Automatic annotation (TrEMBL):
Domain Glycerol-3-phosphate dehydrogenase NAD-dependent N-terminal: 3-160
Enzyme class: oxidoreductase
Biological classification of the source: Bacteria, Bacillati, Bacillota, Bacilli, Bacillales
Chief subcellular location: cytoplasm
Entry EC no(s): 1.1.1.94
Cited function: Catalyzes the reduction of the glycolytic intermediate dihydroxyacetone phosphate (DHAP) to sn-glycerol 3-phosphate (G3P), the key precursor for phospholipid synthesis.
Stretch forming the signal peptide: none
Protein name: Glycerol-3-phosphate dehydrogenase [NAD(P)+]
Compartments, record wording: Cytoplasm
Length: 345
């Protein structure tokens, strides 16, 4: 049995706490809202985020120091925009050495930093090579129902990745390892941009052909940006790449798909985000990827179109027209370039 603190009591933090409790670990679930901690402890529910009973062994905390008592593992599951703030607070009160696993899917606009990089910048004594990421096609709603789910954990420190694998793996939650943390983090973050696009496409009333095109050409964009930042292109063919892309672009559970769907139906971004009430990571990630692609001259036409819908009020139909009328090209250009760059390394 391991003593684990899960920081972030939203949908995913709650679902991951259930997996850990199922595996017999001692779980504290920290929330930044006192009232939410009290509700979880008295009702054993967290209804705003997940419709499931929470076993009474999982105790919710509002005081961070109390949540951290004797833990040897921390699972960080707050929205990417809160990572730095939570890590600063954590650094101020954490007294013991722990293994840090994060499960957030985003990147930081301006810096294009991945979550493991942000964590190590805010936490004294932790290097980004020691942080573990957990990512893959895994909607909290299905994990909470113990439906079969597969994810990948990755760290440059293989021992830490194996520790995370052993901590989470069970008969409903299969965990693979990988050493390509760059690819795993970028795959998980960038698929949210394409999921917004898939939702927009469905909202406009387009069918499966359009969605398959978005998924496939979206994957090419993810691989282009990812490899320019040092990811292994093959990672994008795995669970945290194409796997997560499929689940997020096709599931009604996806907040990114749902937000895109509302945009495609003509709603404005601010109204959509108000309605969602949960994090839609793809919005910030679109900004980050757009800025980077522009600076580095990386071709990302879908990302550019989604940026224009989100931030420049461009009509979704106009963006579709723009995408369909680009210059003619050969489909496999990208793949050939990526593979040859891989083999020349
Ligand atoms: N839901 C899912 O199925 C999956 C989610 N993820 C990723 O996990 C991360 C978290 O997502 P998820 O749990 O779904 O998000 P939710 O929107 O469901 O919950 C986010 C939680 O974080 C809390 N929070 C927000 N800001 C802060 C802050 N500054 N300090 C502390 N807590 C804060 C929210 O509190 P408040 O109530 O105040 O808003 C809420 O409890 C995201 O990066 C997401 O992409 C990954 C895989 C699956
Ligand atoms: O990452 C997810 C599933 O793997 C969750 O996606 P959403 O944030 O779009 O709900």
């Amino acid at each position: 049995m391991t003593k684990v603190a899960v920081l972030g009591a939203g949908s995913w933090g709650t679902a991951l706490s259930l997996v850990l409790a199922d595996n017999g670990h001692d779980v504290s679930l920290w929330t930044h809202r006192q009232e939410q901690a009290e509700i979880i402890n008295s009702t054993h529910k967290n209804e705003k985020y997940l419709n499931v009973m929470i076993p009474k062994e999982i105790r919710a905390y509002h005081n961070l120091k109390d949540a951290l008592q004797q833990v040897t593992v921390i699972v960080l599951v707050v929205p990417t925009k809160a990572i730095r703030e939570v890590c600063k607070n954590l650094d101020a009160v954490l007294e013991q050495n722990v293994t840090i696993i994060h499960a957030s899917k985003g990147i930081e606009p301006e810096s294009l930093k991945r979550v493991s990089q942000m964590i190590s910048e805010e936490m004294n004594g932790y290097k980004d090579k020691d942080i573990v990421v957990l990512s893959g096609p895994s909607h909290a709603e299905e994990v909470a129902q113990r439906q079969p789910t597969t994810v990948t954990v990755s760290s440059m420190n293989e021992r830490n990745a194996q520790l995370a694998q052993d901590l989470f793996i069970n008969k409903a939650f299969r965990v693979y390892t990988s050493t390509d943390i760059i690819g795993i983090e970028l795959g998980g973050a960038l698929k949210n941009i394409i999921a917004l696009g898939a939702g927009i496409s469905d909202g406009l009333g387009y069918g499966d052909n359009a969605k398959a095109a978005l998924i496939t050409r979206g994957l090419a964009e993810i691989a282009r940006l990812g490899t320019s930042l040092g990811a292994n292109p093959l990672t994008f063919l795995g669970l945290p790449g194409v796997g997560d892309l499929i689940v997020t672009c096709t599931s009604v559970h996806s907040r990114n798909w749902r937000a895109g769907n509302l945009l495609g139906k003509g709603n404005k971004l601010d109204d959509v985000l108000d309605q969602m009430g949960m994090v839609v990571e793809g919005v910030r990630t679109t900004k980050a990827a757009y800025q980077f692609a522009k600076k580095q001259n990386i071709e990302m036409p879908i990302t550019l179109g989604i940026y224009e819908i989100l931030f420049n009020d461009k009509e979704p139909k106009q963006v579709v027209e723009q995408l369909m009328n680009r210059n003619k090209r050969e489909e496999m250009d990208d793949l050939a370039r990526l593979l040859s760059s891989m083999y020349s390394q």
